[in-house]
User: Fold this.
Amino acid sequence: MKKTNRTYIGGQAVIQGVMMRGKSGMATVVRDDNGELHMEAKRIKSPEKRKKWMRIPFVRGVISFALSLVEGMRALMRSSEVAISDDEEPSKLSKWMAEKWKVSLGDVITGIVTFLGAVLAVVLFIYLPHLFTSLISDAAPVIGKQESIYYNLIEGGFRLVVFIVYIALTLLLPSMRETYRYHGAEHKTINCYEYGKDLTVENVKKCSRLHDRCGTTFIFVVLIISILVFALVGWLIMGVAGMSTGSATADKAILFLIKLCTLPVIAGLSYEILKILARFQSPVLLPFKAPGYLLQKLTTREPSNEMIECAIMAFEKTLDMDENPDSPEKIFATETKLSKLLEMMTKTFAEKEIDESDAEWILSLTLGIPRSSLAEERVVSRAECAKILEIYEERLTGRPLWYIIGDTSFYGYTFKVDERVLIPRPETEVLVRQAVSSLHTGDAMLDLCTGSGAVAVSVACSVAKDKRVSITAADISEDALAVAQENAWKNSANVNFVKSDLFENIHGRFNLITANPPYVKSSEIATLPQDVREFEPHIALDGGVDGLDFYRRIAEKINRYLVRGGMCILEVGEDQAQEVIKIFQSLSRCDFAMVVKDFSGVERVVKIGF
Assistant:
């Protein structure tokens, strides 16, 4: 069967999961001991966006190899942090390191394992073959010295044997056999997509677990190319150039270091060869692919349905990130540094044009610490991180933070908020402050367009101890009134709520009328930030063509509802204050008007006396 969907996506098995890497993103999916799936997805720089010199053949191979190595190791280490379910309390060592050194035990282990892995690779695949061949050469001079082709062929043969023996030994470990099953799931999933089949568990199961772009095949190609390159280097350096220190030990050391330096050349050449082998399906190339396929028979095993689900999820997320620039990143919930978590969240919010301060609020509220304390380094536990990321990822969808939290602070009081009402803004506190200072014992107040009840409830709570004030709050929305009523109960505020389209169902006269009506121009609704235009109720935003419709309607009837000497206090949009004053001067019998600026120096509140 011919492959119909060519893809750049490749991957690797990780601890109890699969990592897939595409042009623009990479995703790792891990199933923990409790059977729950966890995903981490991040953006990477597309090859097309790299500098021109980085896309040159052979050079691109070195860069791709280095990036794949680094990202692959990182994904492997990250998967180990979430694969084991964390139902127990952190260990004493973990707590001590977090409190004493402000570091995560997982980060320390990851660093040590990465270093030891690199050292082990150099020892196993470069130093030992070199050592064994040197010993044989000393015992059998007929083989020749380091510049001899026979010497390098034997050294390469040793390297190949060490690699195969290493793989064979790993098969003795149950954990590695499980990893090889995930490796099989990764190959099968990519093959399923490339053959144009729907990515279902049943379809993936039927596909081959062998793939042309496998890392095992790449390593085999690297080993073969290294034999040829090392032989050429030995011949040129020691034979043609005649480079020698006079000491056999020193010569061996110098040649060993030179061979280390040729690894980028080997990686680049191997990458181009593998790219050619993967591109064409001709039977002529089968003899060249066969050794890699045979090795893949060792490093892949038939996966379970659950393993295939991991691979499919990782592949689909990576594909989505390649095709959709807005596909959100995700992160594993693991023990981590507070500064690292804050930096990641702030950076992502900035890229998504989300208020960066939301990152601080999420951490502050979840960890129960003031925002000012976020500069003090500490280790965030896995459980804390999980709660933080749950809010963080929902915020990335555009949903306002305070809807996610469920409440917000306003004028020192806590108010429930959701999609039924606008989120109270700090600038509205200026209106509340002016209202509180204008009321006297025995006064009656009417709050129009009350929404969440923020203004009415805050005023009621603020004057309750010193002044006997009657407060009525009105709104056209029954949903908004339900939220406002709940906020009155929550804050023990005595407020009478009325369903009314402005003055429609209002009776009596009042000493003070307040309102924070809709004042956004209809044409500007679409230009508002995503969290406002997509989640907050438009009925509480849309003020008509010029944003002043509600002010006109209030001005037309306000004299019927204000006592002589009464006052109206209104919140207005930026640059609307003077226009609102003109409206009241022309439509109502007002005596004076003044403007109060908010904390940013914007003319935010208009006070009109009657």
